[in-house]
Design goal:
Blueprint: H1 2-15, H2 18-39, E1 54-55, E2 59-64, H3 69-79, E3 84-89, E4 103-106, H4 112-117, E5 124-129, H5 134-142, E6 147-151, H6 155-158, H7 163-168, H8 170-182, E7 185-188, H9 192-200, E8 207-210, E9 235-239, H10 254-264, E10 267-271, H11 281-287, H12 289-295, E11 301-303, H13 312-316, E12 321-324, H14 327-330, H15 349-356, E13 361-364, H16 368-375, E14 380-383, H17 385-389, H18 391-395, H19 401-413, H20 416-433, E15 437-438
Parallel strand pairs: 1-15, 2-3, 2-5, 3-4, 5-6, 6-7, 7-8, 9-10, 9-12, 10-11, 12-13, 13-14
């Protein structure tokens, strides 16, 4: 009956005229928030009996409404060690899923994921979410097997001090906190939880593991002068998500950053993230109109269309440096969008894309965790007010083979294959904690 009602809702959404859908949107939003509050209300909504089974050795099921590079990279590392990785996904990303996963099963509604998941007997179910989502919440509540929750930025600390934004994303915060409290394990891509624990009293219900983004380890060492810049224009690139000023996300400030690069006669290309990949030309042009207009004024700046994930590293390898700068920080301005205090604890996936392309990384000073990971390889370049005032002078001495090969060394040292055994061992510990035994390995 529930599946029938969901099918009716989908048909009605398609048949109703757009003006009617707009009028109904606030009501639909209130209904969705009510459902989320119920699902993420705590242990009272968790189903009583945990499912017990004999798990198949070296089998993990990933659940992801929106598969990203993190899921593909971890799956690649696990499969290199003999694991079987099954993916349950709601949307299809801009890369070939079958290249990274043994089995891929799409589902339409978050409620459907539990039914699909129950077909398997994995060591754990690894649940991936941008923040929190209904699929992960249903999986945790159903107790279908040992669960490991994996999320990106912790939204309540990201927007701490920005009450309107915090309330806007409150349903996501509720589901994110639910995952942290009630999953059997927490796979942390960074150290934001420590900050959330200290400032907001966050706590975990299961054991944690630190598993950052890591690299694919695919960067190629340069043995000739291809990376030597000589007198040519230095080329920098940003690939990934960044805020749009006219949408009230000015802390990122890449319009101002681009203007600084133009003035320094250092080229900067921007590739928006996979979130913008499927946008039509008209929608894309409307969102990035200011950036496209700026690109018309100078040969030193370009806004590109987003790339397929499997094209990214090859295209990025044409540049000299990858960039990850926050304008509000380097300009010494007060942050109005997000809480700058969480920066030292956070991770940035694009940094590891840059390393896999053999690019040293220009990184805001506040990103201490990432700087720490890059320091042993000499692949990070600190961006501050002095850097922004002397961009060309800071980068010119580093535009050479030696600096690029430091990034190559980081790509190899931080390769997922070198670190994945820790995560595999963690899966087995989580399964044991949850009372699930594993069949002998073949």
């Amino acid at each position: 009956m529930k599946r029938f009602l969901r099918a009716v809702r989908r048909v009605l959404r398609q048949l109703l005229p757009r003006p009617v859908r707009r009028l109904l949107r606030p009501l639909a939003g209130r209904v969705a928030r009510y459902r989320i509050r119920r699902l993420a209300s705590g242990p009272a909504f968790l189903r009583g009996t945990r499912r017990r089974y004999l798990a198949s050795a070296r089998h993990v099921v990933f659940v992801s409404e929106v598969p990203r590079g993190r899921e593909a990279k971890i799956a690649y590392g696990l499969r290199s060690k003999g694991w079987t990785v099954t993916l349950l996904h709601k949307t299809t990303p801009n890369y070939d899923l079958h290249r990274y996963f043994d089995v891929c099963i799409p589902y339409l509604e978050p409620e459907d994921v539990v039914r699909h998941a129950a077909q398997f007997r994995p060591v754990v179910y690894h649940l991936f979410a941008l923040a929190g989502d209904l699929s992960c919440t249903h999986m945790i509540n159903a107790k279908v097997g040992p669960t490991v929750f994996d999320t990106t930025d912790l939204l309540e600390t990201t927007y701490l001090g920005n009450e309107p934004k915090t309330e806007q994303v409150r349903p996501l915060i509720d589901m994110q906190m639910h995952g942290l409290r009630y999953a059997d394990g927490y796979c942390a891509r960074d150290l934001q939880f420590q900050y959330a624990h200290r400032t907001l009293g966050y706590h975990l219900g299961g054991r944690p593991i630190f598993c950052p983004e890591y690299c694919g380890g695919i960067a190629k060492k340069l043995v000739d002068s291809r990376a030597e810049n000589g007198g040519r224009t230095i080329r920098c690139v940003l690939a990934g998500n960044f805020g749009i000023e006219k949408l009230g996300e000015g802390d990122w400030g890449y319009m101002r950053i681009a203007e600084k690069f133009i003035a320094a006669k250092v080229a900067l290309d921007l590739y928006p993230s996979w979130l913008d990949y499927a946008r039509g030309e008209e929608e894309f042009s409307n969102i990035f109109a200011d950036y496209l207009a700026l690109a018309q004024t100078s040969d030193y700046f370009n806004l590109r269309r987003p790339l397929r994930a499997d094209q990214l590293t090859e295209r990025l390898s044409d540049y000299d440096f990858g960039v990850n700068i926050t304008w509000s920080e380097v300009a010494g301005q007060r942050s109005t969008t997000f809480n700058p205090a969480f920066h030292p604890y956070c991770m940035s996936a694009r940094v590891f894309d840059y390393l896999d392309a053999g690019l040293p990384v220009v990184l805001s000073k506040s990103h201490r965790l990432v700087h720490t990971m890059l320091r042993r390889y000499g692949a990070g370049i600190q961006a501050d007010a002095d850097f922004m005032a002397n961009i060309e002078q800071k980068l010119r001495p580093l535009a050479n083979v030696e600096t690029k090969n430091r990034a190559v060394a980081a790509s190899r040292g931080l390769a997922i294959e070198r670190h994945i055994d820790r995560l595999a061992a963690f899966y087995y510990r989580v399964a044991t904690d949850a009372g699930v035994s594993v069949s002998p390995q073949a």
